[in-house]
Every structure is written in C-alpha cells, then in structure tokens.
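Bumping my old thread because nobody answered last time. Still need a sequence for this structure:
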C-alpha cells in the first residue's frame, strides 16, 4: 500500500507512488465524478479573537471523500482543479455549501459565526463572479456580513484596476475580504492601501517557531503594524504551541487559528466545540 495515515487523519501518499501522478487525466475524470456524486465535504477550523478569547469565525476547508483512497487533503487535488478549470465549479459548490451550513448554524443555534471561504484566482476572474456570489447569498438567505472571502496576493496584485472595482463591489455588498498567506507573495504597498481589505492572514511559515526564530517575530510585528496603520486586522495562521501564541499576542495579532485551538473539523462538530470552548473559558 502506497499510503499511510497522516497527522491530519488524511490518507497521505508516499511521494512518487501516488495513484494520480503522473496520470492527471484520471484525476480530472475522477474530480468530475466527485462533483456529480457529491464526494466533496467541507471541514471548518475556528478563528479566535485573542483579546476576548471568543470564537469569531470558522474557515471552510475542502476535503474529498474518495471512494477508494479515503479522505483526501486539498493539496492533492486543488492544484489540478486549478489547471484544468474544474476549480470554478468546485468553488461554486464550496460557496453554496458554506453558505448553506452557515444558515443552518444561524437557524439552529442563533450562531453569528463568520464563515471564511478560500477563492482561487480562476474563480475570481470569472466575469460573473460577483453575480454568482450575490445569487448564492440570496438563494441561501445569508447576510453578506456573515461571509469572508480569502483571496491571495497573486489574485489582487494582478490587473489591479479591474480587481479594485470587483473588491469595491463585494465590499459595498458588505462581504468581508481577507488576503490569505500574506507575506509569501509580492504585495505592492501602494495597491494594498487602496484595497478595501478587512484582514491580512499571516502565513503559517512566519508563525511557526515565532518564539525562537527572531526573524519571524520581526516579520509578524512588521505586518501587524502595517495592517493596523491601514485599518486592517491581522489573523495568524498555524499557531501550534503556547509559546507561539504568547508571542502572537505580544505582537498585537487580532485573531489566530491553528492546531493549538483546533484542527479543521466536520460541520457537526463545530457547535459542540464552540460550546466546550465557551465552558472552558468560563472556568
Ligand atoms: P489555507 O487557506 O492557507 O488554509 C490553511 C491550511 O493550514 C489548512 O490546510 C489548515 O488545515 C492548515 N492548518 C491550520 N492550522 C494549522 C496548524 O496549526 N499547523 C499546520 N501544520 N497546519 C495548519 P488544508 O485544509 O490542507 O488546506 C490547504 C490549502 O488548500 C488551503 O490553504 C487553501 O489554499 C486550499 N484550499 C482549501 N480549501 C479550499 C477551497 O474550498 N477552495 C480553494 N480554492 N482552496 C482551498
Ligand atoms: Mg485560507
Ligand atoms: Mg492561508
Ligand atoms: Mg496556505
């Protein structure tokens, strides 16, 4: 067997022995079948406000319940879906499913969680992207302020004039906007200050080991002060230890997500997890 159970509970392939490499055609046809057969599922990872210790949002992260290979991480299929264009259809499914789930949490628990949704460049560049988002919000009865779109630096720093118009339209609707993996791409500060961005998500490569890698702490402090001066908030990704969390707080990060709080979990586990978190806080 060319696979082992990884630390996330995913089936992880031993490099070179993956069933899908180099056979991209069969991955493409299996992805189409996965859409038809409803094999995708969203897991959700809590985002915590460091000042109040409250759960303020969850990030939706796609997984594939593969009929033969078990639960597959997005790193195994999102890059291919981006190359062959299937990401557009998958992205629409993600948006609709995340909104449907958000609606269910509101109805059943009066929960006011913000749901963050990852958007690929190709999805964002569809001429009808804003229309699609609006239609899905209407269809699912979700207020735009419950939703945050996570865009990457490469999306927003490309074709800036057109992008700015789209961001302004999404912002006018009341949707929250974040830049994901901030610090790993090439952001122009000149453009950044003109964009209606609410949050910068600091990439986990800067967060991990921040307690003993001085350069990481310098970078996180610099991003935080830049963000705050531009009236943006900062979310630290990938916090795993007490020591990292302490430094993130000292750096004035607004929110954090990471294994220290919780791994991404199935939708049904989210409300019980939030309740347990609130109980623990009250102790
Ligand atoms: P991302 O958006 O930057 O998501 C954060 C990734 O870091 C997730 O991996 C999450 O499980 C992982 N993570 C969170 N906390 C920790 C931690 O403390 N330690 C470590 N080592 N990892 C942590 P995941 O779920 O495998 O997703 C990987 C990437 O796949 C995402 O990175 C995103 O770029 C992409 N992706 C996931 N879901 C979607 C989706 O619905 N649409 C699109 N277009 N891309 C998606
Ligand atoms: Mg993300
Ligand atoms: Mg990220
Ligand atoms: Mg990432």
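Sorry it took so long. Here it is:
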């Amino acid at each position: 067997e060319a696979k082992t159970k990884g630390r996330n509970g995913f089936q992880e392939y031993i490099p070179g022995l993956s069933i899908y490499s180099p056979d991209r055609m069969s991955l493409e046809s299996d992805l189409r079948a996965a859409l038809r057969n409803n094999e995708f599922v969203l897991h959700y990872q809590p985002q915590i406000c460091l000042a109040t210790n409250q759960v303020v949002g969850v990030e939706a992260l796609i997984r594939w319940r593969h009929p033969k290979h078990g639960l597959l991480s997005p790193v195994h299929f999102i890059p291919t879906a981006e190359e062959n264009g299937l990401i557009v259809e998958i992205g629409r499914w993600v948006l609709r499913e995340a909104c449907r789930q958000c609606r269910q949490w509101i109805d059943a628990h009066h929960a006011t969680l913000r749901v963050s949704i990852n958007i690929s460049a190709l999805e964002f560049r569809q001429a009808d992207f804003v229309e699609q988002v609006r239609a899905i919000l209407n269809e699912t009865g979700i207020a735009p302020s419950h939703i945050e779109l996570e865009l990457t630096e490469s999306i927003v720093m490309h074709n800036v004039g057109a992008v700015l118009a789209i961001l302004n339209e999404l912002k006018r609707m009341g949707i929250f906007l974040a830049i994901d993996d901030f610090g790993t791409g090439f952001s122009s500060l000149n453009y950044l200050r003109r964009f209606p961005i609410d949050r910068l998500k600091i990439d986990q490569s800067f967060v991990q080991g921040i307690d003993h890698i001085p350069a990481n702490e310098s970078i996180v402090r610099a991003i935080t002060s830049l963000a705050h001066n531009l009236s943006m908030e900062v979310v630290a990704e990938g916090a795993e230890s007490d020591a990292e969390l302490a430094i993130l707080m000292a750096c004035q990060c607004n929110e954090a997500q990471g294994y220290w709080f919780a791994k991404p979990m199935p939708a049904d586990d989210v409300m019980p997890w939030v309740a347990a978190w609130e109980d623990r806080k009250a102790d």
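Confidence is low (pLDDT under 50) at residues 13-17. Let me know if any region looks off to you.
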